[in-house]
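Re: your question about Transposase

S., sorry for the slow reply, the queue was backed up all week. Below is exactly what I fed in.
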Amino acid sequence: MLHNLTKGLEKTVTRHRSCLKSPQSDVGQPADSAKASGEETPYERKIRERHRDVQELFQRGLTIDAISARLGLDRKTVRRYARAATAESLMRERPSRSSALTPHKPYLARRWAEGCNSAQTLRDEIAARGYQGCRKSVRRFLNTLARHNGPRAVPPPPPAVADVVRWIIGRPENQNDQACQDLKDVCSRCTEIAEACHLARGFATILRRRDGHRLGDWLTQANESQVKEIRTFANGLRKDLAAVTAGLTLPLNSGAVEGNVTRIKLLKRQDYGRAGFDLLRRRILLAH
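Result:
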């Protein structure tokens, strides 16, 4: 009976496989994460360092030509940095450049955050949205995202269907805290799995404790369940309710009979179909 219940649970969990995956936390636009967190971008760092060097040399009395020669900068660039009171004023002067990729950057940033880093795949996706540029531009933008945001955190894989079924059917006292928490998370995301878990554990408790007198109440709950596999399992039990109740109540079982049947089948197969009934009978008797 527990085997049949397990098979039904496998179908239930498989049907709701999408619920096994934990939802990803909202990830902001990767391209703006450095700005949102207040972290200095490479461009801003370069401007700040260059402004500091120019101002330091200018305060020491060096001419524009001398500073230009020492730092390897154009004279116009040195003059602009020397006149700027702060590095922030130079940063504000940076022109905003637009390209064919600009309208698609939010989409690319979201897809990159979801785990897609194939420039060709993303280029094909935005081409369907009107992009006419090349794959190299997409690759350069992806490289920028990677530099500004570092490696993406890889989400843990969802639990396997077999693991979830094992957590449901297994004895709760034999499971570790992580398994209990994982099952709780899965049940919180899917009402049908949660209901199947509650009813399956109830039946397993009846079976293990030989509480056959509680089977009627369990069948009533199962009949009202939204999980069709549980209802199917309960209907199968009703077809031979007296025998099922006895099996869940009495300590007797057919294990010895089933063991002898398996042994006889093994002896029969060892003859590879070349022995008759008389020889099989002698082998069974001599085996005792």
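Residues 25-38 have pLDDT under 50 and may be disordered. The two ends are 31 Å apart (CA to CA).

Happy to talk it through on Thursday.
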